[in-house]
Amino acid sequence: MRLDAQFRTTLYGAFALLFVTGAAWYFVHQQALSENEIWQELGAYLLMIHGGAAMLALMLLGALVPLHVQRAWRISRNRITGTIMLSFNAALILTSFGLYYAGSEKLRPWMSEIHTAAGFCLPALLVGHIAVGRRSRENRAGRT
């Protein structure tokens, strides 16, 4: 279920931007705890870029459902890693919503930890999903 090259490049670019800005924000946030104004300002800019990339990723994920997910599910391809990818993306979406809109100071640390952990895991999961998909495609090609 290979994606169109332009769509694939845009999707990977959005995920890469999300990872880089999220990881950079995580590092900067640790520095900002010292209340240094430069770190706090940099953290705010990183969150703006991260949020914009998240909006793009949401659009791309929405397009991915009919283009890739539904078709692959119907023909029973890469269901395990696909389900893991969908689950982690759903966790990231739900926790980001909670971080942005939930005012509960009790929930916020949990949301943050889950979001951070899922975000740091997602690149490895994506690489694994792609590798499994390519291997199954090569196995099918070898059988025909």
Commentary on this structure:
The protein has helices at 5-32, 37-74, 79-101, 107-143. It is mostly helical and 144 residues long. The protein has one domain. The longest helix has 38 residues, at 37-74. The radius of gyration is 17 Å and the shape is elongated. The chain starts with a helix and ends with a helix.
State the main characteristics.
144 residues, mainly alpha, 0% strand
The residue ranges in which pLDDT falls below 50 over 5 or more consecutive positions are none
Total number of strands: 0
SS element count, helices? 4
Query: How far from one another are the termini?
Result: 17 Å
Gyration radius over CA: 17 Å
> Any idea how many domains?
1
Give a quick account of the main beta sheet: strands, pairing sense, barrel closure: none
Q: Assign a percent range to the helix content.
A: over 70%
Order of helices and strands: HHHH
- The percentage of residues in β strands lies in under 5%
Give the CA-based shape. Answer: elongated
- Whole-number average pLDDT? 92
What is the SS-derived class?
A: mainly alpha
